[in-house]
Amino acid sequence: MDNTGSPILQEVAAKAREIHTDSYPMSIGELISIYRDDEMDIHPEFQRFFRWSLLQKSKFVESILLGIPIPSIFVSQRDDGVWDVVDGVQRLSTIFEFVGVLKNEKGKAVPASELIGTEYLPALEGMVWQDDTNPEHAFPESLRIDFKRAKLDLQILKRESDEDTKYDLFQRLNTLGSRLSDQEVRNCLLVMLRREMYEWLSKLSEYEPFREAISLTDRALEERYDMELALRFVILTRILEKEAQGVKDIDAFITTQMRQLAQDESFDFEIEARIFKKTFKALFDVCDGPCFTRQDEGRGRGGFLISVFEVAAAGLGWAVRKSPDRAIDTTALKTAYGSVAANAVFRKYSGSGRSASSRMPRLVPLGRKLFGSV
User: Fold this and answer.
1) Among 115, 262, 325, 372, which residue's beta carbon has the most beta carbons within 10 A?
2) What does the pLDDT average to over 241-252?
């Protein structure tokens, strides 16, 4: 039976033609040389997201020394020939830090690391790559040679591949089984896509009235949920209501929208920041405590609630976006804000068991209705 006309076969064939890869082993010594010559970008900004402990770093060095198999390093070849590291940033950073060639975001040398003893190699305790003043403290010359000759497998996404492939690959490799939060993965993507937007969003999320209004836990802040909320605000105040109707997976939706914003050369950072700050300054001024919590007799109780954020912040932000120069009516804002908790639509669709696909199609329009004329 001839099934060459099958839609799935056609899709596989078409997409496969957009992806061009190569694979070969490369010695650590060669990788060090490539990095030193600035022919590899390991995105030093990622170090704030990928947090390996000293024990993890030491165990990785141990794996290299003992010949334990190590997962492939994925890189993408840019138009200028430089390799962008898509997966393997922490592994390569650990190697470069240990041998003393790692550089930070400003291009300054990072102090070489000192190992700790591991289960199989307790003698690694306190060892460094090289120390002429205390040779017993350093790797023997023969071990340094063996280390540099050890090979890692590289999977190379060639420059003729579809432009978005490396971002899709990064997201898949760093989401499945990753300890990073969804926003930390997005932040890495944003650095690769448009660094200035990442820096802008990070600074925006530090705006004091915003941080006071969302009042997140230390853990949520560590995982950069504040940046996710700032990003959600920008997205939810820009989209059409019909776009909110089709949301099935909120994390995938935010990532897709972020990528579109990052690739939009007309995106105006100054105007977007003005809308953001005007919205959260107004909300913070009318709230008696954190703004996005369960309301009890006019006061916020408990932790952050995304449903209140989607109604109040996104609703007011949408109104500000329509008329950015119009003054906000504080009395009307207080009335709108106070009406959220008792609203029948909000009460029905804001419960903890509600998914984004059932919640957002109702709450985004509700916020625009309640806050649209504030």
Assistant:
1) 115
2) 86
Return the DSSP state at 138: B
Q: What is the DSSP string of 90-109?
A: HHHHHHHHHHT--B-TTSPB
Confirm if 58 and 115 have CB atoms less than 8 A apart.
yes
Cα 132–Cα 125–Cα 93 angle in degrees, nearest 5 = 75
Q: Where are the alpha helices (DSSP H) in 67-140?
A: 89-99
Look at residue 128 and give its three-state secondary structure: strand
CB proximity list for 176: less than 8 A, separation 6 or greater: none
Q: Tell me how far CA of residue 321 lies from CA of 235, 260, 368, in angstroms.
A: 12, 19, 11
The distance between the two most distant Cα atoms of the chain, rounded to a whole number of Å, is 76
In terms of DSSP bridges, do strands 294-296 and 83-87 run parallel, antiparallel, or are they unpaired? unpaired
Whole-number Å distance between alpha carbons of 148 and 85: 19
pTM: 0.72
